[in-house]
Amino acid sequence: MTAFDYQNGELHAEALPLSAIADQYGTPCFVYSRKAIEQAWLAWDQALAGTPHLVCYAVKANSNLAVLNLLARLGAGFDIVSVGELERVLAAGGQPSRIVFSGLGKTAEEMRRALEVGIHCFNVESTAELERLQQVAAEMNLKAPISLRVNPDVDAMTHPYISTGLKENKFGIDIAKAPEVYRHAAQMPNIRICGVDCHIGSQLTDDTPLIDALDRLLALIDQMAAEDIYIEHLDLGGGLGVTYRDEVPPTPADYLGKVRKHLAGRDLTVLVEPGRSIVANAGVLLTRVNLLKPTEHKNFAIIDAAMNDLIRPALYSAWMGIDAVTPRTDVAPLQWDIVGPVCETGDFLGKDRELALAEGDLLAVRSAGAYGFVMSSNYNTRARAAEIMVDGQHSHLVRRRETISELFAGESLLPEV
Ligand code: LLP
């Protein structure tokens, strides 16, 4: 059984019918399953049992405080990319010593705050960043722990927008240049080298490129050790895919089993930064059919969610499963385009979906727990959706729906004359 299954003809989140959630909180809303999030994190952690490791959840995938707090309670580490994410993790009870700071454009202020709270490591992406970090750490009279994010030049074979490990991508330091940057770092008085890392892309359904990247990193570690530059941890980034439709990605256990084989006999701590694989299938976007608009060419079901709530179909042509919460038998199924009310042709969540629909029906957009709410916007002055966490028979509002007045509360008019 998964966290979102049909029971008595109605789609449930754990033990709660989604219709009850819609009645209580309104639509559109994101609904998450506590159990699914916890099980997914534990699958990663358990797959590394017996090896020194830290599973750093990639906060960007879903940064709701309740989600972060559940993971913090399990002892998770966190992968952050901004001071905003850092403050969220701290507010949610995450331990600073388990945080890695990724991202290629860290500001001096962000570095200062991360040093002040004592994060585990900065994943450094350029020489310029390294030099800035040395300067900030010197001003604070501290040593900044660093890992170099190298670009191993492997093709992750995923969507070009979420592929990051090729030479032409903006991310990381060319692996051929990495030894030179490590030597430079080793000379810096306020820098402490602790790791190496890479992240080659997201939604990977084959682990071959991840293992290729691992081998390239191990060769680099050996090369540096020969120069007396010792690397303690190996951070493999995130990227493991999930099933949206019929993809069959490796499980964390399959993938990490291979990783462990390649690491046999080495004294390395393993870090991973999974995001999507922990939260994607732990959430749905619950939405109601507002109007039906059958035309000669196409049938449009206009829902109350839109591209501003879930941009993945518009941005990456991503396919997301869409199911009726209470499938009906009193009308014939038709092919529907499931579209939002936003004034863009790209505002669709699914095309040509066979569904039996009537106005007012509830639909669940599957796999919306990752890169859903976090990528939402206020385009067309639409308030962002509520977020609900289900825990067995209970539901909790973990982010209330925005109000219209909040949307322009920070704006002001020019003086009269
Ligand atoms: N670590 C780093 C440095 C990353 O850049 C990312 C994701 C992750 C970890 C987590 O990767 P995951 O395990 O979630 O694949 N918005 C896109 C995905 C962008 C991923 C960006 N980086 C989407 O909706 O498909």
From TrEMBL:
Q: Which residues form a coiled coil?
A: none
Is Amino-acid biosynthesis one of the keywords?
A: yes
Pfam families hit by this protein: Orn_Arg_deC_N, Orn_DAP_Arg_deC
Pathway given in the UniProt record: Amino-acid biosynthesis; L-lysine biosynthesis via DAP pathway; L-lysine from DL-2,6-diaminopimelate: step 1/1
Q: Spell out the reaction equation it catalyses.
A: meso-2,6-diaminopimelate + H(+) = L-lysine + CO2
| Residues annotated as binding pyridoxal 5'-phosphate | 239, 273-276, 371
Orn/DAP/Arg decarboxylase 2 N-terminal domain span: 35-280
So which cofactors does this thing need?
A: pyridoxal 5'-phosphate
Q: Where is the active site?
A: 343 (proton donor)
The record's annotation in HAMAP family points to: LysA
What job does the chain carry out? Specifically catalyzes the decarboxylation of meso-diaminopimelate (meso-DAP) to L-lysine.
> Protein name, please?
Diaminopimelate decarboxylase
- The record lists the organism as Halopseudomonas pelagia
This protein's gene is called: lysA
